[in-house]
Specification:
The structure is a homotetramer. Chain A is α/β, with parallel strands linked by helices. Helix content of chain A is 44%, strand content 15%. The first copy, chain A, has a single domain, classed as Glycoside hydrolase/deacetylase (TIM Barrel), CATH 3.20.20.370. Chain A has helices spanning 33-39, 50-74, 84-89, 91-99, 119-137, 153-161, 197-201, 215-232, 242-245, 248-264, 272-279, and strands at 6-9, 21-28, 79-82, 103-106, 143-144, 166-167, 177-181, 184-188, 235-240, 267-269. In chain A, the strands form two sheets. In chain A, strands 1-7-8-6-5 form a five-stranded mixed sheet. The first copy, chain A, is globular, with a radius of gyration of 18 Å. Chains in contact: A-B, A-D, B-C, C-D. Chains B and C meet through strand 1, helix 6, helix 7 and helix 8 of B and helix 2, helix 3, helix 8 and helix 10 of C.
Amino acid sequence: MIKVPTARPLPLPTWPDSADAALSLTFDVDAETGWLGYSRFNEIDYSKWLTVMSDARYGIVRGIPRILALLDQFGIKGTFYTPGATAERYPEVLREVVAAGHEIAHHGHLHIRPNLLDRDGQREELVRGIDALETTLGVTPTGYRAPAGIMTPETFELLVELGFTYDSSCMGDDRPYIEEYEGRSILELPSHWSTDDWPHFGWNLDSGTAGPADQDAFVRTWMGEFESTLEEQRHLTYVMHPEVIGRGYRMLALRELLERIRDSANVIYLTHAELAELVAPAGIDSL
Amino acid sequence: MIKVPTARPLPLPTWPDSADAALSLTFDVDAETGWLGYSRFNEIDYSKWLTVMSDARYGIVRGIPRILALLDQFGIKGTFYTPGATAERYPEVLREVVAAGHEIAHHGHLHIRPNLLDRDGQREELVRGIDALETTLGVTPTGYRAPAGIMTPETFELLVELGFTYDSSCMGDDRPYIEEYEGRSILELPSHWSTDDWPHFGWNLDSGTAGPADQDAFVRTWMGEFESTLEEQRHLTYVMHPEVIGRGYRMLALRELLERIRDSANVIYLTHAELAELVAPAGIDSL
Amino acid sequence: MIKVPTARPLPLPTWPDSADAALSLTFDVDAETGWLGYSRFNEIDYSKWLTVMSDARYGIVRGIPRILALLDQFGIKGTFYTPGATAERYPEVLREVVAAGHEIAHHGHLHIRPNLLDRDGQREELVRGIDALETTLGVTPTGYRAPAGIMTPETFELLVELGFTYDSSCMGDDRPYIEEYEGRSILELPSHWSTDDWPHFGWNLDSGTAGPADQDAFVRTWMGEFESTLEEQRHLTYVMHPEVIGRGYRMLALRELLERIRDSANVIYLTHAELAELVAPAGIDSL
Amino acid sequence: MIKVPTARPLPLPTWPDSADAALSLTFDVDAETGWLGYSRFNEIDYSKWLTVMSDARYGIVRGIPRILALLDQFGIKGTFYTPGATAERYPEVLREVVAAGHEIAHHGHLHIRPNLLDRDGQREELVRGIDALETTLGVTPTGYRAPAGIMTPETFELLVELGFTYDSSCMGDDRPYIEEYEGRSILELPSHWSTDDWPHFGWNLDSGTAGPADQDAFVRTWMGEFESTLEEQRHLTYVMHPEVIGRGYRMLALRELLERIRDSANVIYLTHAELAELVAPAGIDSL
């Protein structure tokens, strides 16, 4: 039988404040890094496609401020998965994120897809990312999400070796669980494409796969996943990108989603670090 | 004239219980097999893309239990097209499916697309799949659906040779009929992309062709096909994948669909084996 | 300046029966030919992909009968662009189309994209298509629509040489007009992707570009183009494929569209041949 | 750190006439040029795909007249980004645009993507485009939008060297700002894919990535961005193509959008040249 990773379920905790369900708003602050990292392995040097660079930068200039204001309005703390190179390029903006009390987690250094790197290359990406977040923001990340959501066996091994508390790259459940591979295990706070803003809104000359969703369909889809979450009193992670969700009409849609959620149930918003603390069992490798 | 397969229509039976129409809920339990089978013929070894593996596994961990609960709630028996390797990897979950009275049918062993294999390779896939289902679940499948819906002349010949009662890979009608090729014939219980959940919801880095449909559009589309079915008092097969339909908000959509169908007509749900028995004429090869 | 084709507008006629606008329902009866023609120039031999063949055949088995019934119900005569090889393979079904008073027009012989053929190859496709329609159906087509909508300079020249009255491959207007190239001209009864069913509903493993549209969005889009047509008192051609529009829920959508059109204005339905007669000026090459 | 372009924000001006927000309707008059320019670097000679040529020409024959009538009805002056070769091929139509008081801006000569050209090639495209607009229309463009939205370092340098007042290729903000690169700067009047009609409606055999959006979803999306604009009292640029938005049902949707905007706020429509004058600071290179 071909060897594949396995999973171990975790019991759902009682949510703080008698909440009916728990949510996490997470943001992958890719900015230019996704394109620059991709350019290393492709013919196009995207650093010279000024338009693409500007679209990526939009997440920093417009997306983050709007997101910070919205989170403040709703009293929510979010988790910002930040490539090290993004922190180095935009230290002030990211320091505002930290100052507002949000969590900073690891999202590679130059957002290089792990499958394009050997073990040493992956290690360098991880260590440089940690260093950049520590040096620039004074933060040591305890959680990780793989660039493009691609985790390999080497990534898994390195996350354990480097002492990460949790990972948020896998999709094997919609509740926190333990991902296991080759005798190692890590606390998994799962994500999924259907609650990621890119498959709904993403579009550019090279990789957009569909026209931008209309915002009503988007709200309906994400509200639908919330209703399932509420019914099961479980947890739900939304994955967003400041350059995607940060566009004007999409921020209005996100605000509408948060209002509708607020009006329909007693929910608690947790950063991924807070969630990890609530659900993590003793004795797994990643702790 | 280039030789192509042909079809022979069958009369619609009188549905049991004076039902106005008949429906079959079918589930392709691909889990990791689709990716692993694909890796044999491509450069990427998906067994090392842990994220992809986890998304595939979701169908087993979350999809199947939700599906079993929903079918139980509505008193419906479904047909689970199960690759042999899935049964070997998750025997307990599949035994629960059997124990709940659902049908197990054949869906390849490692979900290898038949067009990628020669006759011997296809034969091995079929025989190993049968063996795995018999050994693991104690079930001998009488029906078959080709992985990725790709049936070749060799597949057709082998299905007849191995004595399958029916096939559910072709799309030449929306009522049961006889598919004919090279003098052989088999009872066909047809499927179609428009009543398959993947073209509506499927998305991943490599092959998603559109953003996830919103659930209202999905329910409307499938409800529309049901209305046509009801008008013609025919049969309708829905094709689903536990890792696709099994996501939270999609299961709510499926529940809504089943409720709306229940409220609008007197329908009967049949497994494909039950349907085959109702409609099959005597004397075709596949019987 | 790079040489490109040009256009000459035509005055809109007064519609018969004091109609406010005129519509044409057209059907490209591709059946298996599109796949078989494509296989000549590609590695995959689709005649061996039995599932694909069966999906294509659906248009004949289910699509055409439903379409004939619907047209009869509304008292509409349509235009069926029929590849010669389709007529040869399914002469009885196409004879029913003729017997019901609908127009048969030319759509290649094996539906080979003209750009894949040199002038001789294109000539053969055209002549074989004419022969097949004459021999099988006793009909000499006066109009043409290029397979996949790809008309080349050779096609244009051959249409004029062979004495076709009109073409329906181009998209340079939404009213009948004269398409001109290299001193030749032909009466053009234009089509467009947005009023073609394939971009809305088409999906298969190889070329579907989006999940199937939901039928409400489809009706809304086509109703919108009708409203524009009505406002301008012009003509509108809908392009459909029996294997695409002929699916159950889509036929219900088409019926709804025709009902809504009927309820909102006094329109006249014309075959393309009837339209050509109404609008064609004297002295163009194609007459 | 990899060198990328940067941005400098500009203060929002007080809008004339006490308007709550400002909008610009812009049209990229590609016509055949996009296909012809593309053919220079690809195997297919699109000048011989007569259907594609006719679809492109539709923007001139049908799109522009409808757009001019609509703008006149609403008393709006727009900005027409016009490739030089389009002006040369259709001088009369473009002169009508000028005569109606609209702005003509630069959009390359043969709509060749800048990344496909070296510095000399780009210079030639820019200079030929300017010459064509001056010679044919008597207009010297002061603004530029890169074909396919691809601006390279060479383009940036040349825009400054040739004295352009503003650029509208980048996406780094949704308010006018200063784009900076290698010590140069230019006034940027940004655009974005989500307010571009192509990702919503575009479809053809070669590059359509999704079926045509239904017009309600389109209006909802663009109205959503307007609501965000109004809330922030900022500026918004819509990007359209006459061959895309100019289709009948899409023009009805655009009209509905303009009506809904008119009914919901006091907005002012500015050409990009007017906007540039309002917001441009002294002393940047591009002035």
